[in-house]
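Worked Example 4.2. Consider the chain below.
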Amino acid sequence: MNKTKFFLILWVGMVSATMALAQDEISPERKQAIDSLALEKVRDLSKYISIIGNKETPFSEANRVMERATELFADGAQIGVSSLKRPEVEYFNVRAYFEHLMALNYDKVTIKWYDIQYISDLERQPDGTYVGVITIYQRFEGTSDDGLEYKDTTKKDITVFVQKKETQIGGRIIDFWDVLLGDIRVAETTT
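Applying the procedure from the previous section yields the following structure tokens:
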């Protein structure tokens, strides 16, 4: 093979690879839609946690909501739990976290999330997945009829994964970007 053919084949290969990578890039408009979807999923999770933790929620309803909440997460994700009473953070897999939340030993539990925002922009990883971080503040209040009371505010960082996926609709393969939540790490816990 002569040098001209070799360089032509190499150039075509590089152009093809560059075009394939460009197809996996997120346009500014698509990124804005993905950011909105990620924030919507975090807000949904906030509502689900509030319902699951509420002692007045019927067991069957809490289980139904738990299933919906679990679907928001990537496989293997963990959620951190902290307390002012202990220095270490305990991490649970997603399902175990929700079960722990349902089993809290209070007669009334109120959980509110606020100040939900991106703290890091989506960054492309070598495997084509995009990763970002959303921060939230969680206000937890638990009270018991016998006078037991606990309150804290926890800053949490939620990892967000954005992956290109395919689905088949009407016999056609359609590409779309999907958002899944990853680990929820405790950044700090205060009164």
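Residues 25-190 form a domain with the Nuclear Transport Factor 2; Chain: A, fold (CATH 3.10.450.50). The beta strands are 78-83, 86-93, 108-124, 130-143, 149-169, 172-190. Compare this with Example 4.1 before moving on.
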